[in-house]
Amino acid sequence: MGVVFKFLLGLSIFAANLQLQAQNVEIYRNFDDFEAKYLKTPAENDTMYIINFWATWCAPCVKELPHFEKAIRKHRDNSKVQFIFASLDFSHQIETKLKPFVIRRPYMKRNVAISDPRQQIWIDKVSEEWSGSIPMTLLKYKDQYAAIEGAFHYKEDLFVEIEKFTNKHIK
Hints:
The protein is α/β, with parallel strands linked by helices. The chain has a single domain (2-169), classed as Glutaredoxin (3-Layer(aba) Sandwich), CATH 3.40.30.10. The protein has helices at residues 2-22, 31-39, 59-74, 94-103, 119-126, 155-169; strands at residues 25-28, 48-54, 81-87, 111-114, 136-141, 144-149. The protein has a six-stranded mixed beta sheet with strand order 1-4-3-2-5-6, sandwiched between helices. A hairpin with a 2-residue loop joins strand 5 (136-141) and strand 6.
């Protein structure tokens, strides 16, 4: 009986931790707030941001997520590399689809939901090269960035883009 109780207690604590993690989806109803926090970083900020724009309803987006999991593992000891998952899910589905989805993927630690309906305005603020289709990954370091539109079909493709960007912009 004691072993079963400890197992169930451990399982409930694990589930509670996953639930808390999923509650950490930052919701941006105004893109300017997201832009100020992640895109207009001060020059002294020496963190590289890898921002993946995606949605739960986008099959290519979901299919490439395991490659991001591997990239996160590869860079886990480097606090200067931050992965951000910027969901473009519909506002009314954040609680019912996005949060449950994130709960099942503990590697997705930093999640944001952008629900600003003015996409025609803010897409160009992310990158003038971005057509607005997803998935799209933005590599950003200080005032340098690279926008990669389309899915990464192989983890090596993602690794190569990160390496190429790092070699070009980070000394």
